[in-house]
Amino acid sequence: MSASIGTGTLESTHLLGLRHTSAADIQLILDTAEGMQEILSRQIKKAPTLRGRSVVTLFYEPSTRTRTSFEMAAKILSADTTSIAAGSSSIVKGETLMDTVLTLRSMTMDALIIRHSQTGAPALAAQFAGCPVINAGDGFNEHPTQGLLDLLTIRQRFGRVQGLTVTIVGDIQHSRVARSNLWALRRLGAVVRLAGPPTLIPPEMECDGVTLHYQVDEALEGADVVMALRIQKERQESGLFPSLREYHRLYGISAERMLLASPRAIVLHPGPMNRGVEIDPDVADGPQSAITDQVTNGVAVRMALLYLILGGKSSDALAA
Amino acid sequence: MRWLLKGGRLIVPSRGIDEARDLLIEDGVIRSLSFGDDASGASTLDLSGLVVAPGFIDIHTHLREPGFEHKETIATGVQSAAAGGFTTICCMPNTNPAIDNGPLVEFVRRRAEEAGPVRVLPMGSVTRGMGQDEMADLGEMAEAGASAFTDDAFPIQSSRMMRLAMRYATTFDLPVVTHCEDKSLTIGASMNEGYVSAAIGIRAMPRTAEEIHVARNILLAEETGCRLHIAHISTRRSVEMVRRARAHGIRVTAEACPHHFSLTDSAVAGEDAEHPGRAYDTNTKMNPPLRTPDDVAAVVEGLQDGTISCIATDHAPHSIEEKGVEFDLAPFGIIGFETALAVSLTYLVRPGWISLPDLVKLMTSGAAGVLASPNFPMGAGELSEGGRADVTIFDPAAEWIVEPSRLLSKSKNTPYGGHRLFGRVRHVFAGGRLIVRDGHPNGAEARGEKG
């Protein structure tokens, strides 16, 4: 199945990750998302594009912004949405992912959005779904719509992604946000610096266009984009770093540290934030922060993706 | 029943034989290994273009009975083994209950005898219930015919327990077989730690998890004098440590699995160069995991220079339901009997790393040497006049594509589905019975029914 819009067609049926997504597909989604922002700016946020299409969100992990964002995106485009949370479904009775997906398939869903704590679960679901599958975050692997909304935010601020230096700070090892950004940023020609404690960065990640930094200051030097990742307390408890206090001291993004970055630099955070740990409140709320833009762009990106993946027409997309 | 095996290329590495010879089988034994003997009244198999070898030996298999009969039974396991050319196999004790006492060893042996003429030699566990805490009845199991001791699936973490067990096992001069894994380095891990795991976000186990135990167990073997066998060796440094230990005269041997010299961790990402496939295919999940190209090269070097004595499959059947889940949740292990020869021919012999006679050795007398003891059948892995007629006949050039549904194992969890391989088993004799004929189980003969 493919989707078409005036100028382009998505090459891939599903969006399981950005590692194998072409630059053309990424650009097409971002371009389409910019069109969607026009709908979001209207007083009556509704387009009939996906009327009669059913979109299922299947979340095996708690989520506020991603799930809400997908559901708003689907509803604005007039799709019918059904949401299933693992805690309140047959999953607690021990139903396998395969059986859950086959059941949903029998109910004739048109798109499946899945979040799962296990890496590869969306890929497994895609084998059985009989419809496009969108990964809303799997294990440590990918969170492709987060990567796309980050790219959209960056592109809006700088007009391009190519040639920018993006510094991602934090728990790279366990971050699906970092991976999705890394793949997409490389594909679009950005230079990526990964910074954090050596226990949280796989050394093998150093490759073309990607450098590793255990001193955050050197990673921030002249950066155009600074992305702080959420640090989880459980990582400290499993011995990966000594304390949140020390983490903040060595890797926290403070206003002082931001002086090392480019004067035009923006700050991103995928949320939810630990203020005072990986990011200081005055940075999160300061003039360089683009964190609220990220959230708005999230809805636009997901509208674009649903629209493209479900094969709408460009004229419909923008009709009131 | 008399059989004349005519016109094949006979390879018996233990006796330095590699030439065209006829072979006469009568009353379950090899009657003659030379031309021109009286073969009147014998049924003849024309074997031109085929290799005639001693029946293969696989010293690392999981037959799952008792306790996990939905994965495999001894009866289905030996059918699969026979189809792969194996006439002598050792099965691991991680059943339910674990094989940790004499009567259980006898149970497995009896079930195997009922299943047919493929010889099944159980290994006993090192600790009771494979629970790591107290020693199993090693002496009783040795008397009952255990071929070795191992806690294969549950490597003993306490160096003290390992040291005591190895010291105690010297009484029986049976090897202790070890799956080498420091579990504190592998918690929640499903694949090899490296670029691929970093790229696809799978929790991973470093090679050092294996190597720390290889080093520890070699030190304990040197200290205790116990025979140590390293199961499914998979990293470069593990191979190097075994090489050095053997050079120092320490009683250590090692085996390698076909998947560890034919596949790398890129297969987990579905990015194997020759066989691109699905990412997160749970049939690429086994332990030790698929490693890097450098580790594969080291395993091949170990096979070439004799550091690694034999090829073993680690045949580990799991049902479709068990494997058809998220990667992290799937059990470790793949089946191996029916692809072992072809994978070895395709990845060792065809590229020129290993000669055909040396491959036969790695699948026969090499394995027999590892387990040689009064509990291991004399003459297994060889062919000699008057000896038991366990013979495997294969076509080293036959090209085929693996179709998992056509394999005889009860489970179909192979990573080689759709792969083009070279080499197929044609006929197998076990105890003089033709149990596989033209690549298929030969009815009542295969099941061991009388008459």
Kindly list the characteristics that best describe this protein.
heterodimer, A: 320 residues, alpha/beta, five-stranded parallel sheet, four-stranded parallel sheet, 13 helices, B: 451 residues, Urease, subunit C, domain 1, TIM Barrel, 2 domains, nine-stranded mixed sheet, 14 helices, 19 strands, 22% strand, globular
Q: Helices and strands in order, then pairings?
A:
The complex is a heterodimer of chains A (320) and B (451).
Chain A: E1 4-5, E2 8-9, H1 23-40, E3 54-59, H2 65-76, E4 80-85, H3 97-106, E5 111-116, H4 121-128, E6 133-138, H5 144-158, E7 165-169, H6 176-187, E8 191-195, E9 210-213, H7 216-220, E10 225-228, H8 233-237, H9 244-251, H10 255-258, E11 266-268, H11 281-284, H12 291-309, H13 314-317
Parallel strand pairs in A: 3-4, 3-5, 5-6, 7-8, 7-10, 8-9, 10-11
Antiparallel strand pairs in A: 1-2
Chain B: E1 2-12, E2 17-26, E3 29-32, E4 43-46, E5 51-54, E6 56-61, H1 74-83, E7 86-91, H2 102-115, E8 119-122, H3 138-144, E9 149-150, H4 159-169, E10 176-178, E11 191-192, H5 195-200, E12 204-205, H6 207-224, E13 228-230, H7 236-247, E14 252-256, H8 258-262, H9 293-305, E15 310-311, H10 320-323, H11 337-349, H12 356-363, H13 365-371, E16 391-401, E17 420-430, E18 433-437, E19 440-441, H14 443-447
Parallel strand pairs in B: 1-4, 1-5, 6-7, 7-8, 9-10, 10-13, 11-12, 13-14, 14-15
Antiparallel strand pairs in B: 1-2, 2-3, 5-16, 16-17, 17-18, 18-19
Helix pairs in contact in B: 1-2, 2-3, 4-6, 6-7, 7-9
Number of strands of chain A: 11
Structural class of chain B: alpha/beta
Taking all Cα atoms into account, the compactness measure Rg of chain A is 19 Å
Main pleated sheet of chain A: 5 strands, parallel
Class inferred from helices and paired strands of chain A: alpha/beta
How far is it from the N-terminal to the C-terminal residue of chain A, by CA? 26 Å
> Which stretches of chain B are low in confidence, meaning pLDDT under 50 for 5 or more residues running?
none
Give, in spatial order, the strands making up the sheet with the most strands of chain A.
9-8-7-10-11
Query: Mean pLDDT of chain B, as a whole number?
Result: 96
